[in-house]
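Reference record
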Amino acid sequence: MLRDYDFLCRQLTSSGDRQSVVDYLDAVLPAMWQEDYLAMPFSSPNVLVVTSGDDKRVGAFCRYMFDHASDASNQKSDLIHPTQYAEDRVVAAWGTSRREPARTRDAARMRGFLRGVWAQRFGGADRGHFFAHTMGGGLDINLFPQAKRVNRGGLWRKMESFCALNPGTFCFVRPIYADESWRPRQLEYGIFKIRSNAPVEFWGHVFEN
């Protein structure tokens, strides 16, 4: 279920100060997502944040909140068994978009991601991107098992295209898990439309995966 992101928009002014809006969202949203994630099955408290791009948020950036459940330092008590935690997985991905030509995609590297394992565990699923390549997303931590019907068209592609065609758009994807695996049951996609001298608008949808 979507959180009330419209409520956050109402906390923001319509002054057109894009940077202050991005700074505010970057500061407030991660704590909300971490709280929601820790309420999901098999989540671990070993949550890290990794940043690519401009860490100061002036240029395009992308952050990944990541549950590094396999880290041995997690197991600090004899009462905690490693199998009670999930696989390592992304908690949320967010940042600002930039335009990247599709032809620059490293298709060979992407096909090699979990080669020999993917077909067995995730047959029929695409190697989806939390942040699309065309809006500045990378590989590795950015990849996850995504339903083809979601990844290859419809509203998901429409939202990705909007971000790519409007560089600097603040957006996020939050996976929602129902078991211990790193394949999300649902995907919460959100876009904040920040325009000069106009209220900030939120566009969001929850996709079944």
